[in-house]
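Reminder to self: keep the SMILES exactly as supplied, no canonicalising. Ligand is 2-acetamido-2-deoxy-beta-D-glucopyranose.
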Amino acid sequence: MPSFLRSLALGATLFSSLSLAVRPVEIRGQDFVDTVTGKRLMIIGVDYQPGGQAGYKPQERSDALTDADVCLRDAALLQSLGANTIRVYNVDPTLNHDECASIFNAAGIYMIIDVNSPFGGESINRAEPEGSYHVGYLGRIFGVVENFKNYPNTLAFFAANEVMNDVPSSKDNPPFIRAVQRDLKNYIAKHADRTIPVGYSAADVRPILEDTWAYYQCALDGDQDDKSRSDFFGLNSYSWCGGDATFETAGYDVITEMFKNSSIPVFFSEYGCNEVQPRVFNEVSALYGEEMTALSGGLIYEYSQEESDYGLVTINDNGTVSLMTDFANLQEQYNKVDISLIQSTDPSSTSIKAPKCDSKLISDSGFSKDFDIPEPPEGAEDLINNGVDDGYVRGKLVPVTATKVTQKIYGTNGNEITGVELKKVQNDDSNVPSGQVLNSGEGGSNEDGGQPAEPTKKGAASTLTVSGGALFAVFAMVAMFL
Ligand SMILES: *[C@@H]1O[C@H](CO)[C@@H](O)[C@H](O)[C@H]1NC(C)=O
Ligand SMILES: *[C@@H]1O[C@H](CO)[C@@H](O)[C@H](O)[C@H]1NC(C)=O
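Structure tokens returned for the bound complex:
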């Protein structure tokens, strides 16, 4: 082959590796699994809702994933922190999220998207589940699927969050949530080109917690393909408070025992008790340690400081960000975890079959034993078969060109941290804690965290950019000759 053709072929190969896309993930048994490598994915996540619930402003055509400058700033910080997943609570499916989704994708960060919103008619109302399960509601949540189904970093959808938050609310609601899961999964099967898992995010309310999980993991008539089952179970867990807590005192032993035999992945969809501040997050080493491998990691509540006082960073009114001590503490904990070891473990080959749904699976807590799942409301079949209308935006990845964060970032001591930028991950990998410590705040950039030497992503990524540029020059020259 003439050498210039060889260069072209080589160039094409390298160029295609520049079009980054994290590898899609699917569920196998108890695990989230990378569909390409077959390795397990542990969720190392942060709940992301800048501005809190009030940050969701569809009337101003804005939600957490509509401002590319903000997403670049936050993706760069979350990447440096070591996160591989965010959870986003409220999105408007009539808005375009391409830039933000592409930025998080380039950072190697997956997204778990809640399909609901706090607005009327946009969630199952726990006080009136039957009246709120209607075709208008389904149109909205199918719109969210349309909006996010084409992003490779869409990891999963939450069909509902904490609808059952006490015994009374666990009486009538459960069959409706199963109905919503069924409808979402039927919609995804018909309109997406890959499976996207659907599940429920539960409040840690005893005694209904175990019943909630038992109710959602079971299979109607034992049919393992039953669409109304949850594909995974998220637990909002705040039982580990302060640095003195232990695996036992925090009740992590009970949780681990409860979910050890789960037929579906279980992870913390929120965690990080704030009763003792600053938080030291030593539950991180428990969650990713040997004893809790049955769980698939978790998401820290939450990225930004809001009224509820759980922030890792403060977003200042002028758009700058100040890292809080919690950010530094969490980064230190993430850096201690041997994530690559956990993720490289082959997923459990013996997957546990979902038990057949039966009232015997549910205790006498008062939780529903009703497995008679409501039929889809009028008009739903048509939506599922033919798709939602064009008022909903169909998302797609777009090139990410800017990587430098333009807003100023301040360390915990108030000094500016310079040189914060998004490092595009290579080889379609997802992000992992890098050993970096982003908190020097001394005009210098990122200090080395004292981890064993490992090439930083920064160096590697810039090499890639340079060789891409050089190859482009080769292309241009070859093109001139032809
Ligand atoms: C888990 O499964 C094993 C083996 O089937 C069984 O012996 C054990 O009791 C189960 N544990 C729980 C908590 O259900
Ligand atoms: C932005 O606001 C923060 C908090 O009020 C302040 O400390 C910082 O100096 C401001 N930065 C700029 C660039 O205006």
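Points to follow up:
The pocket of 2-acetamido-2-deoxy-beta-D-glucopyranose (ligand 2) is lined by residues 316, 318, 320, 408 (CB under 6 Å).
The chain is about 30% helix and 15% strand.
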